[in-house]
């Protein structure tokens, strides 16, 4: 959805033309793979770390601030952009080399940029929060009026509701805050897709050679459950204690274009883990074309096959726009830079925050683990069913460190034990293969190790902090605001979340 789309109405002819163009784009991908037209074919690309970090805005009282236009004007930095909700912005971190100590340099640059943005935002009496889900959001903040001003967001909202034909229902049964508490449940309906905006993410991009894409995507799918269990940071929404990583079910439900009847028929959801391991990136683009109708059928007159025949690299605008409205947790990305095409895996399962060093640790663990798994003697995904990986994602998001995950040659295991006994070493091997220095590997993997030892993720800390405040006599709303204020304080202090006190 990075493309600006003008506000308009779509006709049946628009949809037919768009379907044809997306199909031609899929044919073009197959042709480019066969003819070796991707710049990285036959050789691994330079290791680069790229990321997008979504941020929330709050006022002085820790309530959501519907002020992204004002804040972006104050920040005045093209790296910061709007997001779906007026209480969101996003920073795009330009790709940097992923070798030696460059990851530490990236950490320092990201911290400097966020500190500068916070200082400028504070002049408008607003503040940035790096968190998976803003705990002070309530149902009232999902009203249509709070969609960001860019026309593409309202157009996307209207197209989802046109496809669905009825209001969106959010229905999530939560995990009890403690043994003496019953599980809570959030049931609400909304006439906008703004609950999606509550899901603020860390999105990691990994550029890969076309022949290696399937292995890296399969590896990323394999570890999704471990990722969310170790990094959960989204336990509350609308005053309700939900999952450790509530972004997963909220995002799945908030952008669901299917009414109940289509769900019952087994129609695939647009927020999708997938249904099988793949052999080539073409498998994913073909599935997107085959299974999902257009949401934003904006067409050009450029035929991508004609572009290839003329010796040019096609932009594939329609395929890329369509791909941006199929919300895979690991998304395939086709991009063209300086007239050279390349492919990326976009990892979308992680929440934002809590701190910059936690963010870098999550990134390092992901990059190292997928590289280590890809280069292992026997592919992990050849030893487990795809359904097991999908169930791991749901289990890890729901239970956090207490989840039970399936792992080949281990069976059912908690994520902390799996990480400490096996995955830290695999991630270290993968980072070493990239050329990351021992200093950087130790810095970031020690953060992951610390979370596994203490069982304290961002989500676990939030849940404990709210429980302590409620035990001291505060009601839920006051406890959430107080917890968030303490969270922001420790976020700025910058120590990793596993060291935070309640």
TrEMBL record:
The organism's taxonomic lineage, starting at the top: Bacteria, Bacillati, Actinomycetota, Actinomycetes, Mycobacteriales
Alphabetized PANTHER family for the sequence: CONSERVED PROTEIN (PTHR36510:SF3), GLUTAMATE--CYSTEINE LIGASE 2-RELATED (PTHR36510)
Ranges that cross the membrane: none
InterPro entries found in the cross-reference section: GCL_type2/YbdK_subfam (IPR050141), GCS2 (IPR006336), Gln_synth/guanido_kin_cat_dom (IPR014746), UCP012666 (IPR016602)
Domain of life, per lineage: Bacteria
Protein's recorded name: Glutamate--cysteine ligase
Keyword list, A-Z: Ligase
Any Pfam family: GCS2
UniProt catalytic activity: L-cysteine + L-glutamate + ATP = gamma-L-glutamyl-L-cysteine + ADP + phosphate + H(+)
Keyword Ligase: yes
GO MF terms held by the record: ligase activity
Keyword Ligase: yes
Gene3D superfamilies given in the database record: 3.30.590.20
């Amino acid at each position: 959805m990075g493309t600006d789309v003008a506000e308009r109405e779509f006709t049946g002819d628009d949809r037919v033309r768009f379907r044809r163009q997306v199909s031609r784009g899929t044919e073009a991908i197959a042709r480019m793979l066969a003819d070796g037209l991707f710049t990285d074919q036959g050789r691994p690309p330079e290791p680069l770390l790229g990321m997008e970090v979504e941020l929330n805005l709050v006022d002085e009282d820790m309530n959501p601030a519907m002020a992204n236009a004002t804040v972006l004007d104050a920040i005045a930095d093209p790296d910061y952009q709007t997001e779906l909700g007026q209480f969101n912005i996003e920073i795009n971190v330009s790709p940097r080399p992923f070798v030696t100590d460059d990851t530490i340099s990236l950490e320092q640059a990201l911290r400097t940029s966020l500190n500068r943005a916070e200082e400028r935002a504070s002049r408008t009496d607003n503040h940035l929060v790096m968190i998976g889900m803003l705990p002070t959001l309530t149902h009232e903040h999902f009203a249509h009026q709070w969609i960001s001003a860019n026309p593409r967001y309202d157009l996307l909202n209207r197209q989802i509701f046109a496809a669905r034909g009825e209001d969106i229902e959010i229905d999530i049964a939560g995990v009890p805050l403690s043994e003496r508490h019953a599980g809570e449940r959030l049931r609400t309906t909304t006439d906008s897709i703004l609950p999606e905006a509550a899901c603020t993410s860390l999105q990691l991009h990994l550029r890969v050679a076309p022949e290696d894409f399937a292995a890296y995507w399969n590896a990323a799918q394999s570890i999704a459950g471990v990722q969310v269990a170790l990094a959960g940071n989204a336990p509350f929404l609308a005053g309700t204690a939900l999952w450790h990583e509530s972004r997963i079910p909220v995002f799945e439900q908030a952008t669901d274009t299917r009414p109940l009847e289509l769900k019952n028929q087994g129609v695939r959801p647009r927020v999708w883990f997938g249904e099988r391991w793949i052999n080539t990136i073409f498998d994913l683009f073909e599935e997107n074309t085959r299974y999902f109708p257009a949401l934003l059928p904006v067409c050009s007159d450029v035929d991508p096959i004609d572009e290839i025949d003329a010796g040019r690299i096609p932009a594939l605008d329609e395929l890329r726009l369509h791909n941006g409205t199929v919300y895979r947790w690991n998304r395939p990305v086709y991009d063209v830079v300086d007239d050279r095409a390349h492919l990326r895996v976009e990892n979308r399962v992680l929440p934002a925050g809590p701190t910059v060093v936690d963010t870098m640790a999550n990134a390092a663990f992901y990059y190292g683990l997928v590289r280590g798994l890809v280069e292992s003697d026997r592919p992990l995904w050849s030893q487990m069913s795809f359904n097991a990986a999908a169930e791991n994602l749901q289990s890890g998001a729901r239970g956090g460190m207490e989840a039970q995950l399936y792992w080949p040659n281990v069976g059912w295991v908690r994520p902390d034990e799996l990480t400490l006994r096996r995955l830290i070493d695999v991630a270290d091997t993968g980072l070493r293969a990239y050329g990351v220095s021992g200093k950087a590997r130790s810095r970031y993997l020690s953060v992951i190790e610390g979370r596994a030892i203490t069982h304290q993720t961002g989500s676990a800390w939030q849940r404990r902090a709210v429980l302590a405040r409620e035990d001291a006599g505060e009601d839920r709303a006051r406890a959430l605001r107080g917890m968030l204020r303490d969270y922001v304080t420790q976020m700025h202090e910058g120590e990793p979340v596993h060291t935070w006190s309640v």
